[in-house]
Write a structure and sequence with these properties.
The protein is an all-beta fold. 0% of the residues lie in helices and 46% in strands. It is built from no helices and 10 strands.
Amino acid sequence: QAQFVESGGGSVQPGGSLKLSCTASGSIFGGYVVGWYRQGPGKQRELVAQINPGGNTIYSDSVLGRFTISRDNAKRTVDLQMNSLKPEDTAVYYCNFPYIDSALTSWGQGTQVTVSS
């Protein structure tokens, strides 16, 4: 079963930046789309950025132009550079495979991002 370990979260002021990273374990990674998700207080988990094996990316409207997703298939890592952070970006951020049977993956602990003044 594939698993991710997320890191890099923290507390920043509005307008600040953070870089998140996740590392995959298990037998699958390189041939699949990987996504960064987030779950804010009282909200459902949402997919905010995804990247395919070739490096093509898709972003949700809420982060487009501010977040950049990248991957290193050799290192089995996926990063999320977050700029111009807003209070509404406050959430726990997770990595996972958006298009794989959920029975083959599991959610990690996530990493907390808090944006406040």
